[in-house]
Design a protein that fits this description.
This protein is α/β, with parallel strands linked by helices. It is built from four helices and seven strands; from the N terminus they run βαβαβββαββα. The protein is globular.
């Protein structure tokens, strides 16, 4: 398959878990731990899916999602977070609260990539 997914989260354990789940489904996974690294990764060829945490050490994941969809309007985005987001942009993309079921996460990702 080799569909590329960019995962942005500042927790190494979350990145490892998501990478393992997506790799088992045949996806290529790039990761970033900061807004700056995510924006750099988005500067080239866009991924097939962006998965982004809200709280990052150098900013807000919604800023990453907004920048990514501004450059690539058809890019699907999945927001993951440990807290209910109070940002008005939260309604623009699906939000998955941590901790989430690995099976459900896989279903959501597959659905986003098929749409």
């Amino acid at each position: 398959m080799n569909t590329r997914v960019l995962v942005v989260d500042d927790e190494p354990s979350v990145l490892r878990l998501i990478r393992a789940v997506l790799a088992r489904r045949g996806y290529a996974v790039d990761t970033a731990m900061t807004v700056e690294a995510a924006l750099d990764a988005l500067g080239g060829r866009p991924p097939a899916l962006l998965i982004v945490d809200v709280t990052l050490p150098d900013g807000n994941g919604f800023d990453v999602a907004e920048a990514a969809t501004g450059s690539h309007p058809e890019l699907p985005v999945l927001v993951i977070t440990g807290m209910v987001p109070h940002d008005p942009r939260a309604g623009r993309w699906p939000v998955l609260l941590k901790p989430f079921s690995v099976a459900y996460f896989g279903e959501v990702v597959t659905g986003l990539l098929k749409s």
